[in-house]
Inverse folding.
């Protein structure tokens, strides 16, 4: 039993155009309904070209489809091989070879995604069994049709002959969109697509420049921030140095202790300042002796007392003598030993 194939229908093919079934002239095709394989014809002169492998019968149009029944030349070994593949469902698609007569860009013929005008009138030339197709409407329709020119030369869109079917011009909706885009770029209503493209390119270049400027400004801000931080750190270092130098001069700390307080001040300046402000400057024995009005013998005695520890002063009962010779030294040693201020001397 002959298998029926869909040779063509009204759907959109992958090349972006469609052929109206109602406009396909099949009268000549009915008189010479040749079946080829992959649209190859023997007269093109090479041994690898295939000959006619059969004919089409019961050619008719139904529900927007061009249908035909395949009859293979089983006396031809190659044709019989193709017939076997069709019978066993290894080959399941067919493709119409036709000559476009008229095309239209009328919106009523245009489907979403269409890029070329619709073929409204065409002349069927042949139909081929093919191996690969992508038209979802039928297992027997290849979406790569064969196109013939007026000289009966086979053309394919893949070979760059798309001019045989004109590209669609911008329709009303597209023009409206173009005007809207032109308005965004402050172009005239009648601005061309090329002018709009140039405006878009110019804006893109401006955006690229703005991004570069932003990056440069960001780098400058980072540099300035680092400089400010560097200056602040330098000012803080000077401030710490001045505070510690003053503490050394006041004999609140020694030069050897200075690095320790430097590290503490870098971590917490205010706390370090409070500690140093609460410290009293150290007065040496020589300084203390120089501040009194004692005679040489008394100064020598005071010096000996100051060399004693608080415990020694207490156990030997010499605290009172220290008080007589130096009130300030007495108060200092008293506080060190008893942990509290010495009682005031009653007048």
């Amino acid at each position: 039993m002959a298998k029926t194939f869909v040779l063509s229908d009204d759907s959109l093919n992958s090349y972006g155009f469609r052929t109206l079934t109602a406009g396909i002239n099949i009268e000549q095709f009915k008189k010479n309904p040749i079946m080829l394989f992959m649209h190859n014809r023997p007269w093109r002169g090479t041994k690898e070209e295939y000959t006619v492998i059969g004919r089409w019968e019961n050619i008719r149009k139904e529900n927007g489809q061009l249908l035909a029944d395949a009859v293979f030349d089983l006396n031809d070994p190659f044709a019989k091989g193709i017939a076997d593949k069709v019978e066993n469902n290894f080959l399941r698609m067919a493709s119409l070879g036709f000559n476009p007569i008229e095309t239209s860009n009328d919106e009523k013929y245009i489907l979403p995604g269409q890029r070329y005008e619709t073929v409204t009138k065409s002349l069927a030339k042949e139909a081929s069994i093919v191996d690969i197709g992508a038209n979802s409407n039928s297992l027997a329709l290849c979406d790569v049709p064969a196109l013939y020119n007026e000289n009966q030369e086979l053309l394919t869109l893949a070979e760059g002959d798309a001019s045989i079917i004109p590209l669609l011009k911008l329709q009303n909706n597209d023009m409206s969109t173009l005007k809207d885009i032109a308005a965004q770029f402050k172009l005239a209503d009648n601005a061309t697509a090329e002018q709009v493209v140039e405006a878009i390119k110019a804006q893109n270049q401006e955006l690229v420049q703005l991004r570069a400027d932003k990056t440069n400004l960001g780098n400058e801000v980072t540099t300035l921030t680092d400089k400010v931080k560097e200056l602040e750190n330098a000012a803080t270092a000077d401030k710490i140095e001045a505070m510690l130098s003053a503490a050394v001069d006041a004999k609140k700390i020694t030069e050897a202790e200075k690095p320790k307080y430097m590290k503490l001040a870098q971590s917490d300046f205010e706390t370090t300042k409070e500690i140093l402000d609460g410290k009293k400057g150290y007065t040496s024995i020589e300084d203390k002796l120089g501040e009194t009005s004692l005679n040489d013998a008394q100064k020598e005695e005071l010096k000996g007392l100051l060399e004693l520890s608080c415990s020694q002063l207490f156990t030997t009962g010499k605290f009172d003598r220290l008080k007589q010779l130096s009130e300030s030294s007495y108060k200092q040693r008293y506080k060190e030993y008893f942990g509290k201020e010495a009682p005031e001397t009653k007048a």
